[in-house]
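Workshop exercise sheet. Pairs work together: one partner reads the sequence aloud, the other fills in the structure field after running the prediction. Swap roles for the next sheet.
Pair: D.N. / O.F.
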Amino acid sequence: MTATRVVVAGGDPDRLRAVQEALAGVEGVEVVTGRGARLLDVVAVMDRLRSPGGCPWDAAQTHRSLMPYLLEEAYEAYEALEDDDPVALREELGDLLLQIAFHARLAEEADAAWSIDDVAGDLVDKLVRRHPHVFAGASADDLEGTWEALKAAEKGRTSVTDGVPLGQPALSLAAKLQRRAERLGAPVPAYDGPGGELWELVRRCRAEGVDPEVALRTTARGYGDALAATERAVRDAGGDPADLDAQGWEARWPAG
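Structure field:
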């Protein structure tokens, strides 16, 4: 018996209708739509942008030239989460998806022997492999330990420090290394100087169940909002924030 062929159409209603009409009555063919169908459109649009006659700017990009955008879009998505703004989050996740599609397209063009399909396939395989309690009937006890053990085995890691992204913000890096050390039962010693004081503060935050990066970002953003509000208030009153002395700032600083 001939296997059923499945065609996944994009989300545009007119195009979907045309595909369905064109394939109507064709034996062994089923048109399937649903979540994920429009991801095919992302790949198609990226192909158009990078192909001859596409966008000159997109055609000129490289993995390295796109690096700042990948980081920027990740931070903007993070900010949308901080602001609890689902509309902005939707947009920023789309921008992140663009970066993924862009880098995968560049790799394919460079004969790197992989494409966006390999990226997605690797992710699916990894998720199944690292969730044996879901896909293989394993015990759900100690999920974090199982996840870390599977990662170590897959990547041939010999140290708990292997795989820690050194480019992440310093507070997050310190917290990650401290967590890895404590998993082994290794000490988290004190250090001298300002760096040592920050290191100790990270340890204290973790002991209290507080993410130090989130805590500092929350404080910094609150300060930024108060600073901008004070500047607006001074200008609305006909003054210039640059003319304020310490007492003037203190008198006008928002409560709380």
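Discussion prompt: The mean pLDDT is 87. What would you look at next?
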